[in-house]
User: Which sequence fits this backbone?
């Protein structure tokens, strides 16, 4: 069983930066593709970005390209989301998720149904 725990959320002002972390336990983290999703009040959970098991590929939704960066440290079993130039529309609960099937490509990783394990989420609030 894989457990994922997010941390690093908080209340910031527009233009600030935050780094979210996701700690993984159980399973074989270095074999998993990992993704970040977010859910704002009253909206569906949406894809933010993903990274393959080897970090060879990263994928981002258009609205965060150039501002957010995903990285991972397989030795530490950690996933990160560096968020710069935050905007009020980035306000949401952010979730990390693990995919165990060696998927590839943006379409694959942006599909939340492809993920097998989810964290509990961390709140990010960006004030204007």
Assistant:
């Amino acid at each position: 069983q894989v457990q994922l725990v997010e941390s690093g959320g908080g209340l910031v002002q527009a233009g600030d930066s935050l780094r979210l972390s996701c700690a993984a336990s159980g399973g074989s983290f270095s074999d998993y593709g990992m993704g970040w999703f977010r859910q704002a009040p009253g909206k569906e959970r949406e894809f933010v970005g993903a990274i393959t098991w080897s970090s060879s590929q990263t994928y981002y939704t258009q609205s965060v390209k150039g501002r957010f960066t995903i990285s991972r440290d397989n030795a530490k079993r950690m996933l990160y989301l560096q968020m710069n130039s935050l905007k009020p529309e980035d306000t949401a609960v952010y979730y990390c998720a693990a995919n165990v099937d060696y998927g590839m490509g943006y379409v694959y990783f942006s599909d939340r149904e492809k993920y097998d394990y989810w964290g509990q989420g961390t709140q990010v609030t960006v004030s204007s």
